[in-house]
Design goal:
heterodimer, A: Rossmann fold, 8 helices, 6 strands, 22% strand, B: 126 residues, mainly alpha, Serine Threonine Protein Phosphatase 5, Tetratricopeptide repeat, 6 helices, 65% helix
Chain lengths: 219, 126
């Protein structure tokens, strides 16, 4: 192998590591037997200490699901209508029967999301931002779980490489800024992408994707 | 040498295509960030409304499909301002474009068409 082909080989490894799919394939038998066309995202359960996390997260979830080829019910409208019906408590909605939501909205499936972590921690002159989520899709016809996924995304700003006192101060400033106003949105987007778009564990193509029902080899 | 370069380039291309997110199916305009901004600051409802209208306008102009939920979200904001007739029109458009929404839209059309005191949604009409 000369140097160039070695280089090519290595970049191939690096790239495939960057988008590697998780080893074990999810069980899609329930999902396939129903082939849902539409997804209703209900208000998100919050186990983090950030009271705004569920709303902020809600603003990120509709587009990736629709881009995957599903009809996604209008998330903000659904949230408001549920609240008007006395269902603003996400714990109550999650504990309820998905079939009831199926009757109310005419959806095929319901997506339940729980925020496990949504925080920024300042340790040793660096801030680590963490977003951890559990996703579950249940059938609105049978109530059975069709799919689930777990995502943990951690972001730690690049340490300054300059070293010495100047490097320490630079790191402290970066960390302080991240701590003061941590930006969770890129992490939420990354988590959604990791949950939905990874072959073998993500969501099969929806009815508005040309591969609908034809991607059984991958999902 | 040039063959190798070509090989590398094509290997990279293939891989990038394999894991890159595909081209967007719909033009969402600024829907996500506007919804986020509104949740962060409810005073930004006007901006959210404008961004939803812009998504619909852009799709109309480009003969493209309005993404799922956008007619309905916009219609709901109209309804909250008491513009129930505009809301009903938008709910009907959602239903026409996306038959999956029929049950929900029919229910909302009924609510929006009922004179003050409709059950599911408080009427913002004066």
């Amino acid at each position: 192998m000369n140097r160039l082909s070695k280089l090519a080989f290595m970049s191939v490894i690096v790239l495939s590591a960057g988008c590697a799919s998780q080893p074990q394939r999810a069980d899609y038998s329930q999902f396939r037997s129903e082939g849902p066309r539409s997804i209703l995202v209900v208000p998100v359960i919050n186990k983090s200490i950030d009271v705004n996390a569920p709303d902020y997260f809600l603003a990120t979830i509709a587009t990736p699901l629709a881009e995957r080829g599903y009809y996604v019910f209008p998330v903000n409208m659904v949230k408001a209508v549920l609240a008007d019906d006395g269902l603003s408590d996400s714990n109550l909605v999650h504990a309820g029967d998905p079939r009831r939501l199926g009757e109310l909205f005419g959806t095929d499936a319901v997506m339940y999301i729980s925020i496990e972590r949504w925080d920024a921690k300042y340790v040793l002159l660096a801030t680590t931002v963490t977003v951890e989520l559990n996703y579950s899709i249940k059938s609105a016809h049978t109530g059975q779980e069709l799919w689930k996924n777990h995502q943990l995304v951690v972001y730690r700003p690049q340490q300054s490489s300059s070293g010495g006192l100047a490097g320490l101060i630079a790191n402290a400033i970066v960390a302080a800024i991240a701590k003061a106003a941590p930006n969770y949105m890129p992490l939420a987007h990354q988590a959604n992408n990791g949950a939905i778009n990874v072959k073998g564990t993500g969501l099969p193509a929806g009815p508005y994707d040309g591969l609908f029902g034809k991607d059984a080899a991958e999902y | 040498m040039s063959v190798h370069r070509l090989l590398i380039a094509s290997a990279l291309l293939v891989l990038a295509a394999g894991c890159a997110t595909q081209k967007q199916r719909y033009d969402w305009g600024t829907y996500d960030p506007s919804l986020y901004a509104y949740y962060k600051d409810p005073a930004k409802l006007g901006e959210l409304s404008i961004s939803l209208a812009a998504v619909i306008d852009a799709a109309d102009k480009n003969h493209a499909i309005v993404p799922p939920g956008i007619y309905a979200e916009y219609g709901y904001l109209q309804m909250q301002q008491g513009k129930n007739r505009a809301a009903v029109d938008l709910f009907k458009q959602e239903e026409t474009q996306w038959p999956e929404s029929k049950v929900f839209m029919d229910r909302m059309i009924k609510v929006a068409s009922t004179p003050v005191g409709g059950s599911a949604v408080p009427s913002a009409a004066p």
